[in-house]
Amino acid sequence: MPLLQVENLNKTFIEKNDRLFRALNDVSFSVEEGECVGIIGESGSGKTTIVNIVAGFVTPTSGTVRYDGYDLTLPRCNKNARDTMQMVFQNPMNSFSPRMKLGKGIREGLCYLSGMTRDEQEKRVDEAMEMVGLPLSYKNKFVFEVSGGEAQRAAIARAILIRPRLLLCDEITSALDAEVQDQLIELLTKLRNEMNMALLFISHDIKLVRDFCDRAFVLQDGEIVEQGEVGKLYEHPENEYTKRLVNAAILNLTE
Length: 255
Ligand SMILES: Nc1ncnc2c1ncn2[C@@H]1O[C@H](COP(=O)(O)OP(=O)(O)OP(=O)(O)O)[C@@H](O)[C@H]1O
Ligand SMILES: [Mg+2]
Description:
2 domains, alpha/beta, binds magnesium ion, Rossmann fold, binds adenosine-5'-triphosphate, four-stranded antiparallel sheet, six-stranded mixed sheet
């Protein structure tokens, strides 16, 4: 059984003028334990809506989301069902309160784990900071005192504290320059190998998805138009929209 199985997911938003907007149309996909699945698509195609539904921030109009054996879409679903799932967002500077030192901000990631002493919690935080390559002295810094790349490392440290089985990543490198992006991808690759966690990895960058993910699917206007192994998607796209994304990526590279 896959770790995450999404079936026939639909989401219709009611806009201010009472018009209906169909953001997701019959989306189905799965993520196996330890697997990295990419979601590719242009702005507004529904990528964030998918992870927001998986994370429980948005309620789907219809469809099912099964995670770790639980049907998350059932109203009486176990409230702890998502405890082994974590999320990292696009803008690392907004991921921490500007009033809270990073050490405390990272430790917040342990709020779901009960029964740990403060010393045990601090040890976990130290381990996570080491894993993401942040000096422990950064615990005493505020988020506005570090770079975007460092803040994103801190956000990843907070996410891995509970040793998640699934990490939801929504454009986590888009706000950062190319070199920092490469370093973060290297870090995530290392963490994947060490922790065997699965990832749902959103990006509008099809080349990054080819390099980092195992499988991916392409969203266009809320519908999956193509999915498969990343090498095949990139080298031999079948769908016209995927072909356009690949061509645009190749053109950008050679400019
Ligand atoms: N709460 C909402 N109410 C109304 N419409 C919404 C809401 N949330 C998202 N939408 C619409 O649904 C569509 C998909 O949004 P979504 O944020 O999932 O796109 P995306 O693929 O993540 O885009 P981007 O790459 O810009 O982040 C957009 O047209 C958006 O305006
Ligand atoms: Mg988005």
